[in-house]
Structure formats: structure tokens, C-alpha cells
């Protein structure tokens, strides 16, 4: 088992990178790795309830779905 720290510094200005960080964290957790997510700069907005509700990458990936899954799996978030 490896340890992963995902640092998210992007907000609404870059939904692709923000969504991708959540997606990769979810994948790592699904493979039973230890995962932590750290919000910094504009990424701190994701710590607010409801902020990710309408964030979608151009690929169709939904930030909220990934974020919900990480919360369900009790992944720690730091701001």
C-alpha cells in the first residue's frame, strides 16, 4: 500500500484539473492506498459545502460525484 497526497490549488477557473485530482484520488483509494487531499489557493473553495455541485470537466467528469465518493470512504481533507 502506498501513500498519496493530492494537492488541489485550482477552483472554478480550471474544472478539468480540479475534477482530475478528485478522480485520481478516488482511483488510488479504490486500490486500497492511503489517500489525503490538501486544498490550497483557489482549491480551498472545494471545502465549502455545495461548491462542487455544478463543476464538470469538458470530458463530462463530475467533481461532486468524485468528492462524494472520497467523503464516503473517509478520505481526510486539509485546508
Short description:
With about 80 residues, the chain is of the alpha/beta class.
Account of the protein in words:
The protein is of the alpha/beta class. The chain has one domain (3-78): Hypothetical Protein Ychn, Chain: A. The chain is 33% helix and 18% strand. The chain has a 3-stranded parallel sheet with strand order 1-2-3, covered by helices on one side. Helix 2 links the parallel strand 2 (34-39) and strand 3 (77-78). 29% of the residues are buried.
Beta-strand content estimate? 15-25%
In which order are the strands of the major sheet placed? 1-2-3
Shape by Cα distribution: globular
CATH H-tier superfamily? DsrEFH-like
How is the CATH topology named? Hypothetical Protein Ychn, Chain: A
Order of secondary-structure elements? EHEHE
Which key phrases capture this entry?
79 residues, alpha/beta, Hypothetical Protein Ychn, Chain: A, 3-stranded parallel β-sheet, globular
Write the layout of secondary structure elements.
Elements: E1 3-8, H1 15-30, E2 34-39, H2 63-72, E3 77-78
Parallel strand pairs: 1-2, 2-3
Helix pairs in contact: 1-2
